[in-house]
Amino acid sequence: MTTTENRPDTVVTETVDWGAAPADRAGWLQRAREVRRVLERDAAAREKAGATPHAEVALLKDSGLVTLLGPVEHGGGGQEWPLAHRVIREVAAGDGSIGQLLGYHLLWFWAARLVGTPEQIEAVEAQATRERWFFGGAVNPRDGDLVIREEGDELVWNGRKSFSTGSRVSDVTVLEGVIEGTGTHVFAIVPSHQDGISYAGDWDNIGQRLTESGSVTVTDVRVPWAAAAGFVDRVFRPRVYNTLNVPIIQLVFVDFYLGIARGALESAAAWTRTVTRPWLHGGHERAVDEPYQLDLYGDLTAKLWAVEALADAVADESLALHRDAWTVTAQQRGEHEVRVAALKARATEVALEVTSAVFEGLGARATASGHGFDRFWRDVRTHTLHDPVAYKRREVGAWVLRDELPEPTWYS
């Protein structure tokens, strides 16, 4: 097990009395909406300032959202993934960056279940829940693998990753690397703030600016062999569920794409109702009576509702795989990944459309930088380049025409 003794203090900028933890699904969704309301009040200003989001992560911790999936007996919410996906969407509607941070955190919180032994799962989830760990990950597969050398009962990690979402605001980081001279991959959870981990602070992209997704250098980080996830007597015990990290993270991507799109649409509608002026030659006294406005918002809402419904359905389908984690088959996993791929393709297109098209309903004055309406499109555009959406459509087409299931990779 690891500790978080070296983590920096967080500063809460707004005090909220959250009261007792929610007792059911409806309560947790309401809690997520309350977090959204806090975040959206100054989202544009915080994004422009670009400060490391310590206070925002403290908000997620204090509200209980970071331990949503944690065991109840250790103070967690005891909830399941379909609800977690809805929660991520709500938070992302208020701030896309914080929605991404929460989504990645929940995936890495789940990492022990994906690859760990039963004993490791129990130990990690108990401590992570009690201590409210916030997870980051240094696993970007487009870079070379971290190199691991064996030294007695320890594994020593070295290397660099271009992206490490959560980096400086995380308590612990999931590392993945390969034991030198072998093809053996190893996952482990380590304290984020230690001498052997250096964050460059070089995340300077046009969107998702508060995700702390810059590069990380790992130098002689030591992990006991016993902490290598899923290994028994230094031999990995594989199962199909190990590969479910990709469908989970792709669903998380969908969550914050759709959340950002909803935030854009609802923010734009509020502006159109109260600020946008009718066209001077249109013959209407209010912008909300303009036929083009009614058509625009009706079209965008219908498209977003459709993809949200598909997202809910695919998330519900995943529940059986999570509950049968030790017996899930390659066929079940592959069929689920096809559905995730189809959803990812549609969510990408709709989120890009919504976050761009809302400007037609806002009017020219809304383009003033202080209003920050552009952040929704910039956030979606930045992250939807994570992996080519054409390959998602290809997965679906190969299944339809050739009955081929996606081969598990880091992206499928």
UniProtKB/TrEMBL annotation:
Keywords: Oxidoreductase. PANTHER family: ACYL-COA DEHYDROGENASE, ISOVALERYL-COA DEHYDROGENASE, MITOCHONDRIAL-RELATED. It comes from Pseudonocardia spirodelae. Residues 252-386 form the Acyl-CoA dehydrogenase C-terminal domain. It comes from the Bacteria. The lineage of its organism: Bacteria, Bacillati, Actinomycetota, Actinomycetes, Pseudonocardiales. InterPro entries: Acyl-CoA_DH_C, Acyl-CoA_Oxase/DH_mid-dom_sf, AcylCo_DH-like_C, AcylCoA_DH/ox_N, AcylCoA_DH/ox_N_sf, AcylCoA_DH/oxidase_NM_dom_sf. The keyword Protein biosynthesis does not apply. Residues 35-122 form the Acyl-CoA dehydrogenase/oxidase N-terminal domain. This is Acyl-CoA dehydrogenase family protein.
